[in-house]
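Following the same procedure, sequence and fold were stored together, as reproduced here.

>
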Amino acid sequence: MIFRHYGDKKFNIDKFKPIRNKYFFPKPHGGLWACPVDSNHSWKQWCEGNNFNIEHLKDYFNFTLKDNARILVIDSPDDMKEKFIFQKPKKEYDPVELMSKWNIDFLAMSKIYDVIYLTEKGEVTTRFHSNYNLYGWDCESILILNKNIIKL
């Protein structure tokens, strides 16, 4: 599968930021975002449909993944429930923190997986799920957790 990252003309490994968790947000700091080139629900389509950052779409590069890439495929909320690692609340007594499913431990997951791949079906089924959702992952996409699996 060929993937496309928008916003840069080429991959610069020195610009790759390591994964860091964001508390109460289902996206981490760092990593590299991309989408399958042949996606029916790509980042480019989402941006054009929402008039968002259109100017960044002119610069992009394509890549594939090395054969040994450890890929976590998310097709449904059940995949998240079964395969994601969640952070423990900072305060055990805080009911809001105890109920949040957005405290995803991407740092711990980066030790197990190189890539998280949210399929088109996964994006549709998780977007508004009450407990397990990836709101903000606006299209079929991959999040590269390990820069060494990118093959240009």
